[in-house]
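Reviewers of the previous submission asked for a worked example of the structure-prediction workflow described in the proposal, so we include one complete record here. The input consisted solely of the amino acid sequence. No template or homolog information was supplied to the procedure at any stage.
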Amino acid sequence: AVAPLVFDNWEDIQGKPHGQYLRPRSKTNESVDSGMQPNILIQITVSKRHDLKPGGMKRALEFLEKNGPGAVELYFALPSDAFKSFSRTEIKPAAVNSAVKQFALEVGF
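From that input alone, the workflow returned the following structure tokens.
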């Protein structure tokens, strides 16, 4: 198994292989908790709704789009109670929102 790439800035992920798991060093990274090359972002939350910071999403999107084909996929990892009523998150600006496909994953914590 390949160790996660711990990064400080989105620039650090450039050129990393597909399938590489990406984890920001900061536990309070703007918008996402982790990701995977070439186009996956992961947000872990226990709430039924989770707003994302536009600046962080825009930066992540810019770098992932340079590395991979197609839309960026954003996965929300949720406990069962939140999963049942979780709804799509509106991401600002609209250009970022339309470039991201959102999915919800039910995870046993």
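Helices lie at 54-67, 80-83, 94-99. We consider this example representative of the routine output the project will generate in years two and three.
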